[in-house]
User: Fold this.
Amino acid sequence: MPSTVALTVARYRPEQESEPTFQTYEVPFRKDWVVLDALNHIKDNLDGSLSFRWSCRMGVCGSCGMKVNGTPKLTCAAFLSDHLPGPVRVEPLDYFPVVRDLVVDLTDFMRKLKKVKPWIIRKEERPLGDGEYRQTPDQLDAYTQFSMCINCMLCYSACPIYGLESSFVGPAVIALAQRYNMDSRDQGAAERLEILSGHDGIWQCTFVGECTKVCPKNVDPAGAIQQYKLTGAVHWFKSLLLPWGTR
Amino acid sequence: MSAEPHYTLYHPRWYRRRVSVWWWLQNRSYAGFVLREITSVFVAFFAVVYLWQLRALAQGPEAYAHFLARLKTPGFLALNGVAFLFVLFHAVTWFNLAPKAMVVRLSGKRVPDWIIAGLNYVAWLALSGAVAWILLPG
Assistant:
């Protein structure tokens, strides 16, 4: 076991430089340290100017997504010991504008997420007195997987389509739309169809499949998209054969 | 980005990276993906050969014999061999991905991925067997 490990960290200080550079730090190696611990060590002891996002340290908040040795990962779940002998290369997520060092701007995702109305839509709300909307375990099972998304953006960083076509709504947005489409209490699938089946929706996806591989929560956005392609195609055929049936 | 980027406290100067033309060489899965997309060219190639065959068939025995002789030239054999490998890669990669797109539920339980992929392979073998049975002599 080495006593220290080198971290090569991407720096971007817009008031100083016009494009990112790399800075190498030597941090103590500990078996129980993840990349985020090493970054915090740098921030606390070596260089207070390093900027990065983090919060929960346990894979729940989705704030600490970065590229570690080229792969998008939650740095709170990326052990230094899995990246020996180093240097460990830490970069901001791909395809999002870099605000500073390892911090990226996620406005694009937030804007797109809102478009698919990620909430339960009812044609008519039931009065409170009628009690809650009940679900069977099977009905719950149909969407639970998609509800595990923590908006960490690793899937966007892994998606070359999003990199090449920035108008693509992207893996997490589609998975989250499916989370509500598959929910037995929801009646808003038709309202989401236009965005999902539209020019920037599912048909942009050519099934690279990397989004599913990097997802720390096993959401399987690639699966969600392919399944929705089937839904979209069936809907298109229906509208062709029975134009009055899909209204 | 303009030459003189605007930078104030509330309008940070963002850095936008450009995607390299060689992005697909970054890792093996990207390269595999691009290879899988390229296989469609070879699928189209076989379709064109098939159309060519039909045309030769319609033109009579002489044209058909000429067509067959063309297929037996070393250049065509090599091209067919390469095209066959690509089409094989096409079939295998898509069959392996089929369970992602097809979620079948039987009595509330999701049918395991290997069964969905396996059924595709079985259908492939059965159809290939049927074609071979019709075409191969004896």
